[in-house]
Design brief:
This protein has helices spanning about 5-15, 20-35, 50-65, 70-75, 95-110, 115-130, 150-160, 170-185, 230, 235-240, 245-255, 275-285; strands at about 75-80, 80-85, 140-145, 165-170, 190-195, 210-215, 260-270, 285-295, 300-305. By secondary structure, the protein is an alpha/beta fold. The structure holds S-adenosylmethionine (SAM).
Length: about 300
């Protein structure tokens, strides 16, 4: 069977199984199997697959047909240009979350640069973010609340020179993956992982310039209605936000201030339709909301806040 025939037949199979973008999914699986970028398949449509390649592809397509996420089959995903290991112990990082990482590293980098070119950009960012005068020149600190695969913590460490990151999660299994990802991207020395329930996992006395969180936010009753890839394969611990989906934001609004340096920020991601309730929760706890930001599809998904002076 040629590459083209394998793609066409597998795509028909996946379509019948209700998989979205079936042809793209097969191309990604085949590209992974043959270790070539997906677009290279187009230059090799007439190449015959070996029996071993065909067997391996069949097995991957069978799993995808059972609605196992593509990233679990390939064992990795890309986040902010970093290849991260993923499996059923961690939420597969979503593309929107890259925006939260970017907001975070822009804030941490404000006022830190050395070169003239960089310093214009950093000064602008510092002004925008009102970085306290004592911050420039000293290494930054960040907390990633509910780190999962470690995606946010590792992206911050990769993009912010000398930042020290603490990352916490209640799942020991998730932390194993997060630690492996930190080692893979050589930021092990600047990202410390702790297991425990929310802020209880943070070593005592620690305070941060930035707290980022993409906590579980699906209302418990809605989990059963999600696509099988999410419902049956993302860890329930990573999805379940309690009855109204807002349980963790209430905790963050109430407790995070104790872990923030003066002038620091909290940045959280939340689900579509939760912006108004979450803003209210933070304002009730005396936070000043700096911005509520949409994702690239225009839905409000991120909140940035600081404590009143
Ligand atoms: C939605 S996932 C986000 C993972 C990762 N930060 C990301 O953006 O892809 C939420 C994470 O919070 C963790 N979590 C759930 N309850 C927790 C708790 N009580 N304390 C700390 N982490 C918790 C879950 O294990 C999961 O890894």
């Amino acid at each position: 069977m040629t590459v083209l025939e394998a793609i066409q037949r597998s795509a028909v199979f996946l379509e019948k199984k209700g998989v979205e973008s079936p042809r793209l999914q097969v191309e990604l699986l085949l590209g992974h199997l043959l270790k070539v970028p997906r677009m290279n398949l187009y230059l090799n449509f007439e190449r015959a697959l070996t029996p071993a390649e065909l067997d391996a592809l069949r097995e991957m397509v069978r799993r995808r047909g059972l609605r196992e996420p593509l990233q679990h089959i390939t064992g990795s995903t890309s986040f902010c240009g970093l290849e991260l290991i993923v499996n059923g112990s961690v939420l597969v990082p979503r593309p929107e979350t890259e925006q939260l990482a970017e907001l975070g590293w822009e804030f941490l980098n404000a006022g830190t640069s050395k070169s003239a070119m960089e310093s214009v950009a950093a000064d602008t960012a510092a002004a925008l973010h009102e970085v306290p005068p004592e911050w420039p020149g000293r290494p930054r600190t960040a907390l990633d609340f509910g780190t999962g695969s470690g995606c946010l913590a590792i992206a911050l460490a990769a993009k912010v020179a000398s930042v020290q990151v603490v990352a916490v999660d209640i799942s020991e299994e998730a932390l194993k993956i997060a630690r492996a990802n930190a080692a893979r991207h050589e930021v092990k020395k600047r990202v410390q992982f702790f297991a425990g329930d929310g802020f209880a996992a943070v070593p005592s006395g620690m305070c941060f310039d930035l707290i980022v969180a993409n906590p579980p936010y699906i209302p418990s009753g809605e989990i059963a209605t999600l696509e099988p890839e999410v419902r049956d394969h993302d860890p329930k611990l990573a999805l379940n936000g309690g009855t109204d989906g807002l349980r963790f934001y209430e905790r963050l609004a109430r407790e995070a201030g104790l872990f923030l340096q003066s002038g620091g920020r909290i940045m959280v991601e939340f689900g579509d339709g939760q912006a108004v309730a979450i803003r209210k929760m933070f304002e009730q706890q005396k936070w000043i909301v700096e911005q509520v930001k949409p994702d690239y599809s225009g839905r409000l998904r991120f909140l940035e806040a600081r404590l009143a002076e």
